[in-house]
Each structure stands twice: as C-alpha cells, then as structure tokens.
Amino acid sequence: MIIAIEGIDGAGKNTLTRAIRERVDADMLAFPRYETSVPAQLVQEALHGRMGDLTDSAYAMATLFALDRHGAREQLAPYVDSDRIILLDRYVASNAAYSVARLRDATVADWVHDLEFGRLGLPQPDLQVLLATEPETASQRAAQREAQDASRERDRYERDADLQQRTYDAYLGLAERSWAGRWLVTTSADVVLQEIAHITQGL
C-alpha cells in the first residue's frame, strides 16, 4: 500500500508520518530526495536562487520534481498490490497543487497526472492524506523552524505566503474531485490509521 502524506510547507507532514509509523509497520520515503537525487538537488539549488531564472518556469520545476520521483519508481514497485506499506512525505499531488497555484490554472493538474502516472509510469497511491493545517499556522511553523535551525532556511516557495495559500486551496480542490484516487483531509493520525485499516480490510 502506498500512502502519500500531502500538505503545504510547515503543515507537519513529517510529524504526522512518524506518528503513523509508530503504530503501523511501514517504511518511509520523503520527496524531494535531496541527498540522493540529482533532479532534486537541482530543484534545491533553484529554490535558493542558484540556478538563474529556472524557478520562473513552473513547468520546468514540475518536470524536475517528477524526474526525482521517477528515480524512485523501482523502490516503490514492491508496495503495489502488496500488504507492505510505505508512507510518502509528499508525492505526485504536491507537484499538481504547487503547479496549479503557480500558474493559477487548475487544468495543469491533468498535465502533471499524465506526466507522472502516464509517461513516467509512477504507481498511483492507495491513499492521499491532506494535512489540513491552516496556511497561516504552517507559515509560522516554517519561520520558527528556520529561526531554530540554520540548515532549515526557507526556500522561495516557503517564503511566499500567497503561494502557500493558493497551494492549500489547490490541494482542497484535488481532494474534492478525488484526483488520482482516494483522499482523506485531516490532522489526526488516528483518523488516518482507521482509514488504513478500512482499506486493508477491503484488499
């Protein structure tokens, strides 16, 4: 089972993922894979202003994010139609939501879907969890995190409060139309665990 934990920067995705992992036998993978993936490293450099005007292109950035995930496709394969569980800290919906927010065009989500699930052959998740933390709260958390840890400097996306709000709204839109499968909108690990149990019983 592939479970994607989604949300804007500072929403608490890592915290929720770890809380779930403490109570179910699951592996964990976070995107972007900055430590091991060249496309992810290029994204990181771009978001911190070291790749010229690359970040000006929403399509270029989305493609790099997608190529990062494509590099993990074989790693995800064992969890498809399996009783093994992997928790993903961000997945394809993140690319869709941020692209929609950047371009202010909901139809770009379909392009992301075709790119990642179609051309790049990534497996669709069994469950997508939108961590429903209000953008203002998430922004405050991200700023506090940066102040406490110099290595957690906020990037261009994280510093843009308007972008974060639009991204959150885009996520809600994706969840409402069940984009790429089943969605759950919550802040509760218990609710997610109940849904995992429900899906498992149905497999």
Describe the protein's topology:
Layout: E1 2-6, H1 13-21, E2 27-30, H2 38-47, H3 58-70, H4 73-76, E3 86-89, H5 92-103, H6 108-119, E4 127-131, H7 135-148, H8 156-159, H9 161-176, E5 183-186, H10 189-202
Parallel strand pairs: 1-3, 1-4, 2-3, 4-5
Lateral strand order in the biggest sheet = 2-3-1-4-5
- Structural class estimated from helices and strands: alpha/beta
Main CATH class: Alpha Beta
**Estimated helix fraction:** 40-55%
Shape: globular
Helix-strand pattern: EHEHHHEHHEHHHEH
Classified in CATH, the superfamily is P-loop containing nucleotide triphosphate hydrolases
Quantity of strands, as a count? 5
Distance between the termini: 10 Å
- Write the CATH fold name: Rossmann fold
Unreliable segments (pLDDT under 50, ≥5 consecutive)? none
Radius of gyration: 16 Å
Please, what is the average pLDDT? 90
Beta-strand portion reads 5-15%
EC number: 2.7.4.9
Family: Belongs to the thymidylate kinase family.
InterPro entries: P-loop_NTPase (IPR027417), Thymidylate_kin-like_dom (IPR039430), Thymidylate_kin_CS (IPR018095), Thymidylate_kinase (IPR018094)
Catalytic activity: dTMP + ATP = dTDP + ADP
